[in-house]
Amino acid sequence: MNVFLLILHGLCAVALLGAISHQTVSAWWPARKAIGFAPSFRAVQGAKFTNAIVILFLITFILGAIIYPPYRLHGRTYLETMRMWTVNGSFELKEQFLALSLGMLPFYWHVWRQPLDEALAWARKMTAALIFFAVWFGFITGHVVNNVRGIF
Amino acid sequence: MFSARWTPIFSAAFAIAYVIAEQNNFALFTYHPRIDEWGFLTQPPRNGPGMYWYGWLGTSLVAASGVTLAAVPFVRTRDVPSVIGWAVPLIVMVLFVYLLRAFFFR
């Protein structure tokens, strides 16, 4: 069951990564015309991703919270025994960054709700960038922790 | 739009409450994964490690909700600067990197 939930957690995280990456890039580096791969990636209407990002974040977060105890019992114990402090510390940072993103979620939803308020353009850029950073950091860290015995 | 007034306050209050809860281990509840039991408030580990992260989230949620509700009468008729909604979490993220630096310099 834990393996199934871990894979589901990873799949939801991938969908979340795609959505938040599109939104963040469209906010910081918008493109007027969708010609070619990179401009097409940037030329999305970021606000249309907002509800999906909120829902995917919550689902991924809850799934992560459910599979956290097996990590605490077995994964972290292994990291401590093997003195893998950088990996262990990265996971600690992951849980703090994502908890802070969770608290920011209502504000994020507010600044990205339509019709967009021009006065909140900077808040939109920053909230998307913070969640983008937290989700990417969490994904890479989770991936390394999950594969730690095979990698190191 | 009322969400313009409460959401930045909640976001900032949650971030501050979270770092205080984490640093002082103010957990609303404790989970003991080895025996699959929950306990109220911060409890010492039982038969294995205790998990406090869920409790820190609970503490932060309650504290941020309380601060936001308490602030409502004061912000009903005035604007709340939106910058606090993202700047405070950003500062707390950087603070956590500093607080957890020992993991990366062993």
List the helices and strands and how they pair.
The complex is a heterodimer of chains A (152) and B (106).
Chain A: H1 2-28, H2 37-42, H3 50-66, H4 68-81, H5 85-112, H6 121-146, H7 148-151
Chain B: H1 3-24, E1 29-32, E2 37-40, H2 53-75, H3 83-99
Antiparallel strand pairs in B: 1-2
Helix pairs in contact in B: 1-2, 1-3
Question: How would you describe this structure to a colleague?
Answer:
The complex is a heterodimer of chains A (152) and B (106). By secondary structure, chain A is mostly helical. Chain A has helices at residues 2-28, 37-42, 50-66, 68-81, 85-112, 121-146, 148-151. The longest helix of chain A has 28 residues, at 85-112. Chain A is elongated and about 50 Å long. The radius of gyration of chain B is 17 Å and the shape is flat. Chain B has one domain. Chain B has 106 residues and is mainly alpha-helical. The longest helix of chain B has 23 residues, at 53-75. Chain B has a two-stranded antiparallel sheet. Chain B has helices at 3-24, 53-75, 83-99, and strands at residues 29-32, 37-40.
